[in-house]
């Protein structure tokens, strides 16, 4: 890994898609001016997190939002991890994230595997789950990418570590009820489990369609320190991620050595 500055963007998901796109562009530009090399957006940032809006706002692959993200990445010369947006594919809709390089070219995509199906709400009423998981590589290092509810499945994050990841991005939209109890806990746990930085941009809270959002976008160090918490409002932060902190944590606690030793018995 090479030291770099990560930009975390926390936006409200309003019922006006055009407004959401314009706000995204404004905040990516601001993060770039503050020195960000890699910028990540929240889950469903162009669409209120409600099943009715997933259907209403869903776009075809390579649609309007995709093109806007590509354009913004190219104009700002940054890697843009596009949070996630609802994408139509035939009869199905996916909760999908795209990653663009500094030229605006797509280099990776991930469709959320673990859908937010809980008592009282089912994301699967409108969204279909993805089937594949991996990492992507940039000049700054190897990165993992998960989405929100995936945080509750540590085996996914161990796969990222096995694939060589040093930073894991987790665009999210936790609700207040579960976020207050679990969001910090899960992000810190996954960082400690994998000895990776974990970067989780979230939707900001507002008084309209995002009033139940927990917000509190996080950046957590490989030893579990909270490096940034963006609170509840629309916000951004730029944080330096350091290679030495990943290396040092893995030297102090050589977890992979123990895993290899277990295989010998």
From TrEMBL:
Residues 4-248 form the CN hydrolase domain. PROSITE patterns: CN_HYDROLASE. It comes from the Bacteria. One of its GO terms (molecular function) is hydrolase activity. InterPro entries: C-N_Hydrolase, C-N_Hydrolase_sf, Nit1/2_C-N_Hydrolase. Keywords: Hydrolase. It holds the Pfam family CN_hydrolase. The keyword Protein transport does not apply. CDD domains: nit. Gene3D superfamilies: Carbon-nitrogen hydrolase (3.60.110.10). This is Carbon-nitrogen hydrolase family protein.
